[in-house]
Structure formats: structure tokens, C-alpha cells
Queue: 3 jobs
Job 1
Amino acid sequence: MSPAQRGTIFLERARVISQLAFDAGQFVLRVAAPKCAAHAEPGSFAHLTCDPSIPMRRPLSIMRADARAGWIEMLYKVVGRGLRALAARRAGDELSLLGPIGRPFSAHPERPRTLLVGGGVGIPPMVFLAERLHQAVRAGGAPAAWKPLVLMGSEIPFPFRTRPSTLIVPGIPAGTIAALPLLDEWGVPSRLASRSDFPGCFPGFVTQLADAWLKSLGPEELGEVEIFACGPTPMLAVTAQLARRFGVPCQVSLEEFMACAVGGCAGCAVEVQTPDGPAMKRVCVDGPVFDAYSVF
């Protein structure tokens, strides 16, 4: 475990509060985990025991956290035996939870025009970051008038009921009106992309939608942009290319298979460029959030 994270990762018996099922084997799990909820940040994740019969834990990104109520939410798609067992857990069941883990996203006040790009199971950290930026504005005294825009892509049905957005976003292609209702309620504009012909969605990759929006901005507006992204590695690589082309900073949250998730096994190490040259960094505790230019 990284020395900086000692005392910040907690082992809890988390109680299942609710488990909502969506199309294509997707679930939103809410659990009572007060210590994790109090310390979770956008980009951090939890390491869960899915079932007593399955010893290996599964890492799941945290989508929302309520420190006052003591719960966290995670979105996942059933892939394999472990997550299939997790999907069978019901309200009142207990899970062993280790978290929050990882270096989170860090938004900079001098770049208030935040572009959040999420693909598939990379959507949860974007929802979490959007909520935190929204809360900062509502609380007052925020260091910047954050202007988040959330773009999400999926080739399977989204894990929520989409609806036409009530928020206008200049620079978004005509007809792209589908949004995440929860974000609309917060006053955070969002738009969806898919090649699966879903109503109101941009008919292409979410990175193409991001490209279209970035092209609509002038030099002064681009000077306020910072990109945050989570999703499949090819999507992150294209997002990094976009950031480089438009000359804006970009942070990415990487997805890797993990065993211990606390830095002991180094099984999730990736090569990262540093001022001293290439170095192997552990996605679990050195990340999962990295500067995009150092990875791609």
C-alpha cells in the first residue's frame, strides 16, 4: 500500500441497501459503508467480496457516495462468475468491502469548462465527478464557476432511462438530445452517443461527439477546458489524442485486472512516462487516474 494512502483505506462489512437491475446484465448496487462513503472521491473504487464462496475480490468504480447517509453506489455489468454472484445479493445481505482505493481525479479551478467523457462501465466516475462539481457550486465559495459537460457512450442500453435534455448545449450536433435524467436534475448538461441507433443519441463514438464539441470552441474557451475520461483503453487513447490536438490537459482513469488492489502484487502495473523516463506504475494505488499524456 502507498504510504500516502495508509489510514485512508478501510475494511468494512457493507450491508446491501438496494440492487437495481437494468438491461444487458447491468446493475446499480447501493451499500451502507460509512467509512468508505466519508472518504470516497471521484475516480476511487471499492474492492468487494462478491460471495463467501469466491475468495477473489472484484474492483468496482464508485458512482456516488453520500458521507452523511453513509452509502456508496456502484454500477457494474455481469461478466463472469464473481459478478453473477454479486448480482444475486439482496437488500440486507452483507459484503466485505475494502475502500476507497486509488488516486482520484483532480479538477483545476483555472480550467472550469470540464469535459467528462465516459464509455460503458467508465460512466460511474463521470457521474461522481459531475455530482461533486455540482455540489461545489451549490455550496457556494467554490473556487470556480464549474461548467461541466458530461458525454457518455454505450453500445448496449444505458443503465438508466434516457430522456430528452432540457439543457441547451451549444456545439452539440443537431438531434443529439438524449441525456441522463439525474444530471439534468442537477443542472449538469449531458449527452449520449451510441452506434446502436438509440433515440436521441449521437450516431457514433463518444469521442467523435467530444471532437464535435471541442471544434465548436474558440481559443479563449479552449483555454478553460480540461478533459476527464474513463472507459475502455482504445477510447482513452483516442481521448488523449483529442486532448493533444486541441492543446488541453486530460486525466484518464485506467481499467486493469487486479488481485490485491492495494499495491502488494503489482499485477496491475502499466508503463507510464515520467520526468526520469519510463516507469511501471500500479493502477490500483498509483492510479487509477493518471495524466493522459504520461500514459498515451
Job 2
Amino acid sequence: MRIAIQGELGSFSHEAALRMAKAVGIESATVVPYAISADLFRGIAERTVDAAVIPIENSLAGPVAEHYDLLLDRDVWIERESLLRIRHNLIVLPGTRIEEIGRVSSHPVALAQCRRFFEQHPAMRAVPFYDTAGSVKQLMEAGDRSAAAIASRRAAEQYGGEILVSDIEDNPANFTRFFLIRQAELAGREGGADKVSIAFTVENRPGTLVEALKIFAQQGTNLTKIESRPVQGKPWDYVFYVDYQISAAANADAVLADLRSSCSMVKELGRYRTAVIDLASADL
């Protein structure tokens, strides 16, 4: 099975992809990195890859807006979700001492989640980079002992770096939610699904959003997430992305039927089981 990720090998997406593959009984998945998310979705459409694992939101940094837009725009289906504890590590060339380090690279979100570490080490300058694992790859290629990177343990293993300081994130309750997605016509429909993701739009007039949201309460479903994104080419119009929990498939179908009778557009994005925290990766 070929599973696409956005970013370099060794990233948190790489870790999530391997964990999700194992959870569905696949022990030998090949992870295929893409630099751009749109290319990853194109790989699914062209069947260059069998599936993809994408981050959709972080418990501290919030949603990955581009991925919401692509889920709506492309013909894909969410098969599964997972939660991965994000552990940031200071990674260096083997043998580097902490007093040698003058700059530290990583993705801007990772840097922002390690502010306390930088306050404790004022000689270190934070340098934004396009990817956490990519910052380790670049560090090892450059061979610069005055530099370091912040990334996952897997990134250090992938590129031969040494973890000098582990778990440097400010907040240990740092989780990223990932989706496993496939081309819609090839996707499996997981038995026992208790969660649904949808997107919908309403007419831009008073009360329409309230009426749409009432449907979830009337059907006895638990609304767990709502996110809004602007409609491309229509300033001040919005798409609403919603996750809701269900007790049976008929429950999900009833919500969708009622929404379709009152909304301008409704798209079901996937049905899957609610993820639970992997205690092996948590250790809070």
C-alpha cells in the first residue's frame, strides 16, 4: 500500500501514516512524500498512491485550512481519523554540544510551540523552515554544528541526527488529528462508524445558519466540531465544515436529508470511528 503524506519522510505525518496503516492491519506500507498538498490530492485522483494521511487540526495551533478546502474540492472520502501526541526534540549533528548552537530551524508552528525553550536559551535564534523533518534533512546535509532543528524522533532516526534535548514543547497536551483518505469510489465504508464529517453552505440571510444547526439537535446528534472557510470567488460567503457523532447509520442519513432540504450545498466527506488517544504516544 502506497500512502501519501505532505512533507518530508520523518515528519509527524510519516509517523501518523505508519500508525494508521498498522491499525488497519497493513505492516508494510510505503510512505510517499509530496511537497505540496494539492499534488498529494492529485496523486490520489490519478491513483499514483492508494491513500493519503493528512493533518486536519492541531489541539493548540488549530485547523489546517488548506486541507479543508481540498477535501471539499476533490473527490475523496475520509476513512479513518487518529490522534498523535506531538513531541518536539532538539536535533543536532552527532557530538554537538548545546553551547555551540546559534540557530534552530523548524516549521513556524513547531517553533511557536517551543517558546519557553527559546526563552531559556537566548543565544539560540529561531529560523522558520518549510517542514519539521525537512529542517533535520537540511541540517544533516549542511553539516553545520552551530545549527540545530526541531522535529520528531523519527526525523532524527531518518536522517542520522542526534536528539540533544527531548520533549521541548511548551504544552504536553499537544495533539494533531489526522485523516486517512482515499479516492471516493475506492474507499471502504468502515463498519461501526460513529462520526460523520460534512460540508454545507446556506443562503446569506438572517437565521439560515441557526436553522441548519437546529437539525443536529432535533436529530439527537452530538455536534463535535464546526469550522468556516470562505467560498472561493464569493466574498463574505462561507462553507461550514461540521463533525457530528451518530448512534446508527440511519441517524446520519436523517441529518443529511434534512440539511439537503434547507441548505444550498451539502457534501458528505466521510464516516468513521471516533479516534481515541494512543496512550503509548501520549504519556502526559
Job 3
Amino acid sequence: MGSAASKIVIKSPREIDLMRAAGRLVHEVLCEIESQIRPGTVTAELDEIAERMIRQAGAVALFKGVENPQARFPFPANICSSVNEEVVHGIPSQRRLVEGDIVSIDCGVRLNGYCGDAARTFAVGRLGKKAQALISVTREALGIAIREIRPGVEWSSIARRMQQHVESRGFGVVREFVGHGIGREMHEEPKIPNYVDRSQRGADFELVPGMTLAIEPMVTAGKPAVEFRDADRWSVVTKDRSPAAHFEHSVAVTETGSLVLSDGG
């Protein structure tokens, strides 16, 4: 196992309950945003919804103000809204969604000292078959991970199944961005890839009860290579400008399997 395993913070049942409360708020925000997505919706308006709900709950948005040395400015919004070829970290703006778009919404909050983080990709109106399949396959990859989690399993075995599921259907798995541990901080050890290759061997880890993981497959309709959009150096886009989808849940490892912390339960 890699040295990252020794840095993983194991959570108590009380801490997991607090994380579940944060995850419940994220779930509620995403559900409200989903109800507002239609052709003509402005992505900045979705950010306003999130800001209001997070503030009213007494929570703090995790993303707003985050600094990235590669970016041109701190992240300016409460959510990420990534449209079509944008994979992650899209910035809400005055852009209006149009029929056939897909939009990935990522939301993270800190509530009572603990974090929740989740993402979903939504259809804007009617989609073509390829876009529908892209969304379904990405959601299914996350479902595979949640079902396969149990103590004693090495993460690489789960990542391999996720990768095989995606690639066997003709889609690409993004390499440059992966999931992460979560708890008091948004990003904790370990890094959680959605694929397996030689570079990951030293970072593999065995699942144990009390681990809390933000698992987030990012899948492309074309080739998996990505790059930053130069205008802001935040938005990550596919190099071939093919559409991408993103699903994420915060999940706790239990004695018998997994507990999803961001599904509203």
C-alpha cells in the first residue's frame, strides 16, 4: 500500500452523522437546481439558488474563494456548472442553457465543521442517444463503486471495474482529475482514481470502516484528454471538445459495505 494510506483520517460514527447532514444539504441543493434546469435557464441563476440555500442552512460553500495557482482569479461561485465539453470547474455565468445541452453541477458545503460534496449531470430538454448514454454510463460507474465498496477491498479493484464499464461502452475516463477523501476538509487523503495504470500502484489503499470518500467519475464522449480553458484557467474542457459527464457522491465505508452520505438519506 502507498504512504497515503497512513494519512487517511478514519471517522467516528458521530463524525459520519455530521457529514451525512452536510451531504443532505448538498442533495437538497442539487434537487432544487435540477427542478430549475430547462432551455433558457441562466447558469448564474442556479448559483444564486445554491447560495441562498447554503446560507439559510447556516453552512458555507466550499468552492467560493478557493485559490488555484494556475487560475487567473479565486473561484468566484458557490457551485461549478460545467456545460457540454466542460468536464469540471465550470464557472456559472450569464450563459443560457439550450435544448440538447448537458450540464454538470458540483456542490460542496461545510456544515457544523464537516464537509459534503456531490455532483450530477443533467439533461437540458431532449438529448440525443449519445448524450443520454454518456450520462447513464457515468452514473452507472459511480453505482459500481458504491456497490463494490466493503472492508478489505483494494481501491484499484473497484477502479478497474469502473474503467472497464466505461471503456467497454466506447467512452473515455478522465485521468487528470480524480476523487478524494473528505471530512473536516474538502480534500483529504487518499486520491481516488477512476482508472488503473502503473502510475497508481504506489497510491493504492485498502478500504477500512470509517473511511469517507468523495468518489467522482468523469467520463468523455470522445477521447479522455483534457485541458484548461485559457480564459479563466479554471474550466477544464475536453481537448477534442466532446461532451463530458460527472457524477459524485460522498460515501462512508461501513463494516458491511458503504453508506452514501449525499443521497438525501
